[in-house]
Amino acid sequence: MKLLPNVNLSVKKAVHHILPRVCKNHPQAAVLAVNTVLHDCSDPNPEIKCLGITTLCAIPEFVEHVPGAVHASLSDSHPKVRLAAVNGCKSLHSHTPQAASEQGLINILYSLVRDSDPRVSTAAILALDFLLAEEGGIIVTKAMAKHLLRRLEHYPPVQLASVLQAVAKYKPKEEDEVFEELSLIDPYLVHSQCPAVNVNCINLFLDLIEDNYAHLIDQLVERSSPGLIAYLSSASESTASTVLKFLLSERGKAWLKNLPSADLMPRIAESPSVKIKKLSLIAITCKETEADDILAAVTPFCYDKSCGSQAVRCICKVRSNLEATSSKCLAVLLQLLETSETDVLRNCLVGLETFSMEGIPRSEISALLEKVVDRIDLFKPETIPAVAPHLLGLYGELLPTAPYVLEHLVNNYNQLQFDTK
Fold it and tell me: Which coarse location class describes where this protein primarily resides (predicted)?
């Protein structure tokens, strides 16, 4: 409390940062702090004013003092102060949900959507979406949508992504209005600074054309694909993840048809999450002409503990989608069965459970059976994988020792750990 009035900005920032926590644990501290916090809300230094308004809105005990300070800050001449006040409305709503509407803040926030500062404008949109979540979020009128669309070029990338998402809430009714909106957002299909801009722009495009102008979707895919592909090679996990999430969605399917699988190939340095998502998509995009290169590139990832199981599933999925690759995919799995690494062996045996042997030469199936039986420990029934009895039941006649192995499994039935349904 003694440090709160300190004129040193660094000290004041630190104290304001911990004050909400202090007041939560010691409510009586709010009584001691309120006058200083209110004084900071009217300080001539915008930085201090921002600290004051942020703290005022964050502490429930201060709620009766909020109206005057927040109303004044929302109309302050400095954009940082207005931004702090807008974000403060979200903090206020978190602990006192009715306060924003009772204090007339909703209408002020709607007016701030037209604020000259793009960050304040975007913050107002997000705040309204948060405050009005139970009612479906912000209501975007024709006039608001038109205003935002005309100002798109003024928004920084991150804010632009949020604005495009908000504009999607307005549904134009006239054809001229639809195509005017399409022309205004078209440049952002090839945006190169923020993947969320591209993805939100694509989604907005789809909202406008998929019902009555579906024939334009192919052109949309062609125009927007290069930008999405460029992001896939980014070293930033969040950048790649944003695009991958879209491609894995129902709407993203149209973009997978002509997407070269090589552009999806993961890198060792990438996060497990990104590698797993990329491998999931490769299994879908892989074409017969790419199969040899893709199988060779995916195989090393089967030994990667962070994504090994997904790499094996990718190989099995390629076989499922491309009949002609069945022997090549089986050859990779046979190679994996040679490993001494327990995780790799387990992933391979699990993958074989869904691997179709249809169309594969009997000699190759026989080699697989021998390898599987060779890699299981019959003296540890609890470790025997489900694929063993599955393959023996279907192709046991190809293996001379199959009756003895099956007899052993039956005799130790109660110790088997896999799903026997």
Answer: membrane
Question: What is residue 421's predicted lDDT score, i.e. its pLDDT?
Answer: 43
- CA 134, CA 93: separation in Å to the nearest integer? 12
Could you give the 3-state DSSP secondary structure of residue 78? coil
Q: Which residues of 115-142 are buried (b: 16+ CB within 10 A; e: fewer)?
A: bebbbbbbbbbbbbbbbbeeeebbebee
In this predicted structure, which of 102-111, 142-151, 312-321, 387-396 has the lowest mean pLDDT? 387-396
Token look-up 């070029």 returns 153
- Gap between the Cα atoms of 355 and 313, Å rounded: 9
Question: Tokens standing for 383?
Answer: 């470790």
Residue 225: pLDDT band (50, 70, 90) is very high
Residue count of the chain:
421
How far apart are the C-alpha atoms of 32 and 52, rounded to whole Å?
A: 15
Unique residue bearing structure tokens 């391979």 = 348
166 close to 140: Cβ distance less than 8 angstroms: yes
Q: What is the mean pLDDT of the chain?
A: 93
Q: How confident is the model at residue 46 (pLDDT cuts 50, 70, 90)?
A: very high
420: confidence class by pLDDT, cuts 50, 70, 90 = very low
Contact 63, 105 (CB under 8 A): no
pLDDT of res. 385: 85
Q: Where are the alpha helices (DSSP H) in 251-400?
A: 253-256, 272-285, 291-298, 308-321, 326-336, 342-352, 362-375, 387-395
**Contact call for residues 262 and 285 (beta carbons, < 8 A):** no
Residue pair 262/292 in contact (Cβ under 8 Å)? The answer is no
Question: pLDDT grade, residue 417 (50/70/90)?
Answer: confident
In which element (H, E) is residue 95 found? helix 79-95
Q: At what angle do helices 387-395 and 342-352 cross, to 10 degrees?
A: 40
Residue type, 102: E
- The H or E element that residue 17 is part of is helix 9-25
Kindly state the tokens that stand for 223. Answer: 């125009």
pTM over 0.70: yes
**Between 175-185 and 195-209, two packed helices, what is the crossing angle to 10 degrees?**
160
Beta-carbon contacts of residue 414 (< 8 Å; ≥ 6 apart): none
